[in-house]
Design brief:
Ubiquitin-like (UB roll)
């Protein structure tokens, strides 16, 4: 990951401090659901990148960094470019079991609450290829231990 991923600008630090102060103040006040949702949206806007990891059934993780306003379709394209059987149909699900469907493709990663980082689970949806591995050989050569 680039160093910019981990560094915050002075404006972001000030905004973070302001948000923490507001959070303490708001915890002392009863709020409606709409107020809580608005605050949650404000909290999520501080991120510029989303770290998405896709876990394959063999335990290997494919990692990509995306902008928070990129669409879910970009994640699917990223996965498709790296798997050994790109024309195969697959499904990605969240760790909570939420299945990401065709209806979610035009939603941003921010809207899907995949920010700042998420692990998605990969499953073949249709015909399963005969290979025992999921990623292309050139991708497997770049494999690193976590």
């Amino acid at each position: 990951l680039p160093p910019a991923f981990f560094t915050m600008t002075p404006d972001e630090v000030k905004r973070e401090q302001q948000l923490r102060t507001e959070r303490v103040e708001s915890s002392l006040v009863l709020r409606t659901k709409a107020m809580r949702e608005k605050e949650e949206q404000r909290e999520m806007k501080k991120y510029r990148f989303a770290l998405i990891r896709v876990r394959f059934p063999d335990g290997i993780l494919l990692q990509g960094t995306f902008g928070v306003y990129e669409k879910l379709s970009e994640v699917f394209t990223f996965v498709q470019e790296h798997i050994v059987f790109p024309e195969g149909e697959f499904v990605l699900t969240t760790g909570t079991g939420l299945r990401l469907t065709e209806a979610d493709m035009n939603k941003t990663l921010l809207e899907l609450h995949l920010v700042p980082a998420s692990i998605l689970l990969f499953v073949w949806a249709g015909e399963t290829p005969s290979e025992d591995y999921y990623l292309k050989p050139e991708v497997m050569l770049q494999l690193q231990s976590l």
